[in-house]
Write a structure and sequence with these properties.
alpha+beta; OB fold (Dihydrolipoamide Acetyltransferase, E2P); de novo design (two linked rop proteins); 5-stranded antiparallel β-sheet; 3-stranded antiparallel β-sheet; 8 strands; 36% helix; elongated
Length: 250
Amino acid sequence: MNKLRHIKTDAIILKTSASGEINRNFIFISPIIGVQNATAFGAAKHSSRFCASVQPYIVANLNLYKSEKLNYLKLEDISNVILNDFINNKLEYIYLTSFFTDILLNSYISSDEFKSYFYLLFYSISILKEQNDIYKSFLFFTSKFLFLSGYKFNLMKCSHCGCKFDRYYFDINNGGVFCENDAVGKKFFIDFKSCNLWENFYIGKYMDLKSEIIDLTCFKQIYTITVNIIKNIFEKQLVTLNFLDEIFNK
């Protein structure tokens, strides 16, 4: 078997779409080949073994064939399927995971980062599945995404004077928190408790963060800042940001 043409990989399916009358195209993220497109022939037919398994947010092992001439991936087999159909049970889950997908599809991910981004999504979905916590899932995904993207902010002391305070203002342009005396503009208020929570999500491991308690006052401060940072990162407006406002700004 030609290893260059046959690829076996774990994957999370991000999006699906119809291709003709009976086929289904899908986009997935893999820890070894990143974000890719593939076609599952016949998957739109109810009798197809791919019909139920080629769906958004399913985690599975994919056996793919790479066509060199046509430059596309064909799904030959799928196994070890984990159905995350719980996402469809709540609109807030649909909105949040759609935001995750939007971020991944609009980001440049280098080959040495494929695995990190794959597990970023995997663990973010796991938080929803195991803990039913949209706040923790959002904080985990966005904090780790910003960290992976090279954004590491100073959150534990004033970026100018170096002193610790109970109250700060976050400066998106200069990246970090500033005290009352050194802050310019004073647009994004954030207190020390919120800074500490955010720092934990930046540097903490998934297993440690599972027991983290989210204070909603802290969350709202971090959420406002994070959304504005993301708006600055992407050149185009992400439609799914409007979805977030519906679930977090009720």
